[in-house]
Amino acid sequence: MKYLLTGNEMAQADRLTSDVIGIPSIVLMERAALSVYEEIVKRTAQDARVTILAGPGNNGADGLAVGRLLTDNGYDVQYLLLSAKTPPAGSSALTQQMILQAYGAALCAWNREAMYEFRPDVIVDALFGTGLARALSGTAADIVEAVNEYRDRTGCMVVGLDIPSGISSETGEVLGCAFRCDLTVTFAYYKRGHFFYPGSTYCGETILRQIGIHDRSFACEGGQRPEMIMLEHADVARRIAHRDGGGNKGTFGKILIVAGSYAMCGAALLSAEAAMRSGAGMVKIFTREENRVIIQETLPEAMLSVYSALPDAADARREEEDRIRGSLYRDLEWADAVVIGPAIGRGREAEVMLDALLRFVSADEKGEIRANEKRRKPLRGIVIDADALRLIASGERADALMQKRDPETACILTPHLAEFADLVHKTVAEAGRERIPLLRQLADRYQCTVIGKDARTLIVSKGVREITMITNGNSGMATAGSGDVLTGITAAMLMAVTGSESRGHRAAQAAAYIHAEAGDACKRRMGERAMLAGDLIRAEESVFHAIESAGL
Q1: For residue 396, what pLDDT is reported?
Q2: Which pLDDT value is given to residue 366?
Q3: Do strands 107-109 and 76-81 pair parallel, antiparallel, or not at all (unpaired)?
């Protein structure tokens, strides 16, 4: 597990390391400069010309120290400053400038013509770093424009220190304009902006280097652990229980997939097969009668329950609705975990099925399951996706039932950004801008876990402080059916994760990571453009092998 820090969290860690632990900031600065120097030397010849663009703060001081180390190694280095003003007394920037003046180095204010005349092979962006919170303007914006133009024209390498200047370390958004870097060397911890888009595309290759700031700084008085994490293979391995060698198909979980409507059986098949390939012992699909033949021919390992279309006549319609409820209740009694939503539509049939499930897992004011729907044990969890999410967003009854859910039944919502916007009653643009607080509001409202799907998926749960960002995966996964695969994996993980506390959160973490890692396995094999949702299921084999190996 790795932390993903905001600029403020990084500043806190830096300060506590110096002020409380006692490692001088100049030592941390020299180690940061050395790490950048080493990465540049790996990639360039010794006769390369390097331009250092230095701002007035600590990031600029880091850049000046990088230039000094390159000068010591024989590189031809040009120093261009954002401002000709003398830095404040006692500042790191002044210290580094005085060292370079003792070297006899020329420190000049920014000049576009001077940079073009020097013809650098490498440009080091050391203007602002992670502390920037406003749009670049004036001279800083002029520098960014000139450097990006020069890079496009000459192919020179642009190296960012910590994060490209102009990129928000918290959101990844472009603050007016930003350097397009080929390499970003970040210190101690990754920042959120390295992974959120569009910031990720401005970073180029991102290298994490340790400089002496460690987790112990968060344990100091006044410190607090960062809120956001990213996962690695070993983290997922720890969340998944070892399979019982003496188990049977019942041991490994019975999953009901309520999916598919008329001429829409693909979602049901993808979800069901993904659950099976993720270790579920038994899977049953609850779907429209018209899907029976193709499902039985395509996935004979799955069990099947079907319902018929609702007739037009009112009495017959009510009778058929009762039959759907009765059949679904019997299957819910059988199941350990349930998926509902993929391609069920938003008509009356879908409303009946969602209402039946939510009544089945709802509790009265005393927290007891309603007597007429009592079951032998609570469902381990439910996964709600796609059309079911839209029905919850638009229906007062579904919303009320969601808030009365039996607390023993974990609930995981898997909305993409448009579905999420509907659930929180915002525009897509608003939902994107306010994503983290709105995810928290949604998780709190329904006492659930939310897998907020997007180019970077975020996982938020009621009662869990940490936010998980899924940093693996790729654009090839943006294809029809990919979300249906995730729902199946998620249901299987509800049966696979260890323990009972925060089950939904840990199942969501494991599922989203496995899903994304399968996407990366497909990318390595076939590239991003040729990927289909079914390929993700076939890639699970190699993903589980890797995760199990990491857990040994």
Answers
A1: 94
A2: 40
A3: parallel
- pLDDT confidence of residue 26: 95
CA atoms within 13 A on the CB side of 472: 21
Mean pLDDT of 30-49: 96
CA dihedral (514, 515, 516, 520) in degrees, to 10, reads: 90
DSSP state of 288: E
Residue type, 92: S
CA angle 482, 392, 534 (to 5 degrees): 10
State the DSSP code for 332.
Answer: H
Tokens of 522: 């497909």
- Could you give the CA distance from residue 428 to residue 331 in angstroms, rounded to a whole number? 36
Q: Which two tokens stand for residue 77?
A: 């280095």
Task: For residue 91, give both structure tokens.
Answer: 């500042």
* 392 in Cβ contact with 354 (< 8 Å): yes
pTM of the predicted model, to two decimals? 0.94
Q: Please tell me the distance from the alpha carbon of residue 156 to that of residue 125, in angstroms, as a whole number.
A: 13
Cα separation values, 70 from 78, 374, 455, 550, Å? 11, 73, 38, 39
d(CA 516, CA 413): 17
Report the C-alpha gap between 327 and 357 in whole angstroms.
Answer: 11
Place of tokens 């029976």: 292
Provide the 8-state DSSP code for 207: E
Rg (CA), the chain: 28
Mean pLDDT of 192-220: 96
> 3-state SS string over 480-508?
CCHHHHHHHHHHHHHHHECCCCCHHHHHH
Task: Output the pLDDT for position 552.
Answer: 59
Quote the percentage of the chain above a pLDDT of 90.
90
H or E stretch including 447? none
Query: Residue 61 is encoded by which pair of tokens?
Result: 């001081």
Burial of 227 from C-beta contacts in 10 A (0-12 / 13-18 / 19+): middle
Residue identified by tokens 């309603």 is: 370
Provide the pLDDT for residue 376. 58
373-396 pLDDT per residue, tens: 455 578 999 999 999 999 999 999
